Known about the structure:
Layout: H1 5-30, H2 34-39, H3 46-73, H4 78-105, H5 111-119, H6 123-156, H7 166-214, H8 218-229, H9 231-234, H10 242-253, H11 260-263, H12 275-289, H13 291-305, H14 318-325, H15 329-365, H16 373-395, H17 399-420, H18 429-449, H19 459-477, H20 485-492
Helix pairs in contact: 1-7, 1-15, 3-6, 3-7, 3-12, 3-13, 3-15, 3-17, 4-10, 4-12, 4-20, 5-6, 6-7, 6-14, 6-15, 6-16, 6-17, 6-18, 7-12, 7-13, 7-15, 7-16, 8-13, 10-19, 13-14, 15-16, 17-18, 17-19, 18-19
Amino acid sequence: xxxxxxxxxxxxxxxxxxxxxxxxxxxxxxxxxxxxxxxxxxxxxxxxxxxxxxxxxxxxxxxxxxxxxxxxxxxxxxxxxxxxxxxxxxxxxxxxxxxxxxxxxxxxxxxxxxxxxxxxxxxxxxxxxxxxxxxxxxxxxxxxxxxxxxxxxxxxxxxxxxxxxxxxxxxxxxxxxxxxxxxxxxxxxxxxxxxxxxxxxxxxxxxxxxxxxxxxxxxxxxxxxxxxxxxxxxxxxxxxxxxxxxxxxxxxxxxxxxxxxxxxxxxxxxxxxxxxxxxxxxxxxxxxxxxxxxxxxxxxxxxxxxxxxxxxxxxxxxxxxxxxxxxxxxxxxxxxxxxxxxxxxxxxxxxxxxxxxxxxxxxxxxxxxxxxxxxxxxxxxxxxxxxxxxxxxxxxxxxxxxxxxxxxxxxxxxxxxxxxxxxxxxxxxxxxxxxxxxxxxxxxxxxxxxxxxxxxxxxxxxxxxxxxxxxxxxxxxxxxxxxxxxxxxxxxx
Length: 493
């Protein structure tokens, strides 16, 4: 079967691409308004929502960037995925019921709609929309780059396409993504999540056992090989160091409740009481799927160190290289298909909230009414994809680093205004605005000016700390707001 490895992988991926086209066409028939395009009608079931939450979180960030980070930094990134589970709990406990009720109360089609209802201003949802756009740029670039890196590894194994460039793969990836996203909107994303979430769980478990039996001596021998080269890499802090890891723990734990592509799903399920059933399913799915994150990164580092595999051109190719050379062809094909599914549905979610910010939230802040909103939403989706692809190609960052930038941008801007704002009546609109502005200033200044931060502290943790301090201080220094009675009732629940 080994001689047919690449045809089998290509067949699995091809079948998946056809499935994407089918889902897009099916979702097109169900997408009849801008509300359907952005919010899926708020009638999703428990399993659909639960799988959408965890698979959107993992996506190309975890399936491509995660193994790449482990390959490059050792155990440092366990502080990302372990604390994301804590983030799920925080999100559902503090936001699950309130977001769903607020969305119904204000007939919201986006997170900024809920923010506007909570603070009674137009400036705060406008600033949230701007913050979402900046975060989408980093995170959508993550998905496009992840998909392109994997596609390049698959196609380059074919003799006819061995010289294919990353730029060409970006063009192919964007073409598929645009069709999928433009036709189906968020409906295509969440229903694909149900299928690919199941594939991710099963595939990750099988990959974990494949890793265990591929390297002679299993994980014990892998650890010894890495330790002989660099003891820090296999230690609890990895090569990033204690302070850097704890900054990831902070921003990925608390910051999980500030991810619009995740918490927006909490506005879509049928009844508020479903939250308590959705949470354990999401956590379980994420836990099993994340096995791939650690296992592939460790074995590829050990194989390269022991001379069993050539040095990787880029750390981001760790997952693709393992699947291409060491996994059973059918398993590799299924995992590649599941990986593309994860990336596509997550990228669609980011395109959706980014497009909503441009076509719905920002115009609404200035009392501008967009005619034929659904048409312009689809047009904006295309333009946003192209812009993010250019950003992905020319930043020169790893997939996981781009993902961390997007995560940190969302967390610093949204956690104070939304997570705390929906649970603390004393919070004011002025404080929310100040927190969002300071978070963007810190994040963008460090990113664009390449300001070095000591001790490997993540910029997202720095900006989240700054925005939280500003939020509390300004809230106490400004007059308390009189809340709408319906909003106050929701916050009391």
